């Protein structure tokens, strides 16, 4: 489709991952362009267009159009990757079961303890080169959230759950890569077995026990509750922790903008966190399928077309955000002027958790991390297989 012009990079390039704006800047100016194409995929990237794609489910959805052919494909996929098939069938697919999970996530908020988080960042207050801290930062969200639910785990289990969840997310949208798909299936199978065991033997007084009982009282098949917990567990490694790495990078890149927060941490609120997440976060490209014909930016979209929403493009669109590359904590975020956590049918189930985590942890990070510290930019490394997300795997910090 010519309405999508070729991007002068692969979306997997580290340069594009870490700073997509220079590649997108000339495209924002071209009114004739709907999006860009790269690596065999088409991407929409403007705020206005993506906002419409996110909001309007009459026309686009994440699920493929239901045809005889897609039913056969899905059946073949489920036969080859049975636990993934089970997950597609049950996870977040039943509206009332999803509502129950969301209600429990509100209760979970009050049970999250962040005591273990600050000591991890405390090492950054010492002079020298810091590298190893990121390994612990990666495990923190999963550790903290599993505990708040009342899951029990050994350090080895935690690491395995982490690794398997990463393997799973890497396999999203990588339908031609058999190795990633197989690893994704193994990851799903391990997490399903772990969650099922915990769900069936939850200790009295834990949120997990209450959730299991209430889900049964409501008459839900256990598969719905277990699959949504599996989704939750698998979402914990790559979301908050990767966004933390982007946040650390920006704290040290935009020292003038951040200084008022250092001087007065009481200024830190959800709006501040949203601005950090707008500037950079872990979410990259999420797919949508066209279910009925419609027009976007004057272009006809046909049933069966497939495209991606490029989230950094939405968050940096100069037609929507004044000086998009700056961190500006005066920006006001409302429900309708941003899609940082998605929106509508696929809105993020972890948004409140992420806001709580960052608004409570950020003052501690600013207190520990000296302003004179710097990121060793040339040594940053990202993991390149992902379509949905892109992970910073190495972020050395030097404290002179
Ligand atoms: C760090 C900040 C986070 C950001 C910026 C973020 C962003 C997003 C976005 C943009 C979507 C929409 C996906 C789409 O359009 O297809 C989404 C969905 C989702 N997020 Fe998050 N997220 C964050 C944290 C979390 C956390 C902490 C969890 C859970 C532990 C989580 C779990 C999910 C799940 C399960 C969905 C899919 C919801 C559904 O399909 O109904 N996210 N997130």
Description:
- A six-stranded mixed beta sheet has the order 1-2-3-9-6-4.
- The chain has one domain (4-399): Orthogonal Bundle (Cytochrome p450).
- The chain has 17 helices and 13 strands.
- The longest helix is centred in the middle third of the chain and has 23 residues, at 178-200.
- With 400 residues, the chain is of the alpha+beta class.
- 51% of the residues lie in helices and 11% in strands.
- It starts with a strand and ends with a strand.
The shape is globular
* CATH architectural grouping: Orthogonal Bundle
Output the CATH topology. Answer: Cytochrome p450
Query: Helix segment count?
Result: 17
The succession of helices and strands, N to C, reads EHHEEHEHHHHEHHHHHHHHEEEEHHEEEE
Portion in strands:
5-15%
The name of the CATH superfamily reads Cytochrome P450
Give the tally of structural domains: 1
C-alpha-based Rg, rounded: 21 Å
Mean pLDDT: 92
Bound molecules: protoporphyrin IX containing FE
Strand order of the largest sheet: 1-2-3-9-6-4
Name the CATH class. Answer: Mainly Alpha
- Percent in helix: 40-55%
